[in-house]
Amino acid sequence: MNQQAFEVLGFYKILEEIESYAKTNLAKETIRKLRPLQDKRKMEQSIKEIEEAMKIIEISSSVPIHTLDEMSIYLSQAKKGIYIRADQFPFVISFLEHCTKLKQFMRDKEYAAPNVSLYVQSIPDVSELTEEIARCIRHSNVDDYASSDLAYLRRQLSILTDRVKEKASQLVKSKKYASYLQDKIVSERNGHLTLSVKREYRTKIQGSVLDTSASGATVFIEPIELADMQAEIETMKLAEESEVERILYELTEKLLAEEEAINLAIETMHYYDVLFAKAKYSRVIAAKPPFLSEDYTIYLKEARHPMLGDKAVPLTLSFGEEHRALVITGPNTGGKTVTLKTIGLLTMMAQSGLLIPAKAGSKIAIFQHIFVDIGDGQSIEQNLSTFSSRLVNIIDILRTTNDRSLVLLDELGSGTDPGEGMALAIVILEQLYQKGATLFATTHYSEMKEFADQTEGFLNGTMEFDINTLRPTYKLLLGQSGRSQAFEIASKLGLHPKLIEKAHQITYKTYRNFHHDQNLKELDFQQQIVVNKYARKSVEKKTVNPTPSREPIFEKGDNVILTETDEMGIVYQGPDVQGRYIVQVRQEKRTMNQKRLKLYIKGTELYPEDYDFDIIFKSKEYRKINKQQKRKHVEDVWLEEE
């Protein structure tokens, strides 16, 4: 499955949501890499395990998962011969304790999750190691009683330190130094006890100057009487540090000896973290386990797009038993695109071993490929138009699609000339169907609806529209094609029925009666017609033909019916001296006698007074060149009248 499909359908956003429920960075990374599978057995196993995990969460939402982040680093550090520091061991203790807690937690939930609880058996018993580390480490420091030697050294250090302090206190109070001292206090400098001596008397006291005050008036001297005792303390501290390092190395070696057990515990903890993140997300979106089919049948029962939350309108769809292609029509913003995305995204989720937001009993087909052409996809870098960029994507889909592909196409053929776009859309659908793909396509083209009605394997569907509220219901109806509802909306909003009936006849070549809403005043309709008639009469008075060759029956822009063929055309020029008019019929200009023409709708009723008829009668290229010539003369360019 390609990157574009994941992005367009919002699969990565689903993974981000699931990832937010994971505790460890390792689990978050695993979730980010989650992709659809092809193996039905693995999908079903994953779905079943998530179901069991959800049952566990219902009993107790507090699952003892550790953050894990540092354990692998500590093991790697230990293998390099670097001991784990005392301030790092509390994390190790916490991890080991969580292993024990998780084992007990899962054993207690075995009745609710018989399969998921089995994984905890892979965590070895690490209680002895936990107790040993906890005995030696207290408050991020090596405990005094971690070894008998350390206990002895620290007791001796405490005794010597007390003696030094007592001696320093005696010196401060002695008459021998009283006149030399700046302050009668003992100060500590660089770990040594010193006396605050006036600068001018610094030679009167034997010892080492360790510091000077900011003003320079005071020097801090370690008296010779304290130096020997301090040296003994330093020696004792070195011995203490050496013993602490020995204990840390010993604890690190014991941890390293259990490397295999710890790695197993990390893997198991990581597995549970990923699993419970999926389960927690499934609970939030009220997801249920789907059945998985390999016969490409899809049954969605009140399925919802997971990113829409409470705003999602449930989608019920049964498809694939008799048809392999569905053409969906309906008004804009009616939910066609959301329907496509829901089908595609839920398929991706199920194939990734996830539960889906749909009622129990829903069924998802397993596909090898999911291809998507939805949205703009415009490429600025390649200077491609919307139509071109989408066509490049569709060409790639045609090249790669097989009978195990799900193809989702939104507004196929849009962005270009309607006639050509419709024709391309039909041949593309036909070719994809012949390749065996399962197809879902949305369209506005009525010809595509007719194609789907008449082609075996194709089915029409429409998004329901509530004409009473003028709002789409976002519900998919199979077996029928929809319209844009423009005429119904116009009637509901108060456009004169006569105008709507004419518009309907132009579009569908058949008459249909439209009744106005009784809540609207009759005067509203009369004003529409009166205003239009008055404007038409005003234009007629202003139009003067000083030398008419013949009194005109028809005017430029009038819609006329060719009585012999029952075709409809638009008057372009005329009449000439023989009473003939040039009429455009389906982009072709024909010369017709006025007797063979019958007025259908006056052009003044269809077009504003200053309407540019070149839009109808001239090609786009002709209008472009004509516009350039009007601005300035363009050399070597001749404009041939069309």
Automatic annotation (TrEMBL):
- Which keywords annotate this record? ATP-binding, DNA-binding, Hydrolase, Nucleotide-binding, RNA-binding, rRNA-binding
The lineage's top-level taxon is: Bacteria
A Pfam family cross-referenced in the UniProt record is: MutS_V
Say yes or no: keyword Translocase present: no
The UniProt entry's GO biological process terms, in alphabetical order, are:
mismatch repair; negative regulation of DNA recombination
DNA mismatch repair proteins mutS family domain sequence ranges? 405-421
What are the GO MF terms of this UniProt record? ATP binding; ATP hydrolysis activity; ATP-dependent DNA damage sensor activity; endonuclease activity; mismatched DNA binding; rRNA binding
Please report the name of this protein according to its UniProt entry: DNA mismatch repair protein
- Organism listed in the record: Niallia circulans (Bacillus circulans)
What taxonomic ancestry is recorded? Bacteria, Bacillati, Bacillota, Bacilli, Bacillales
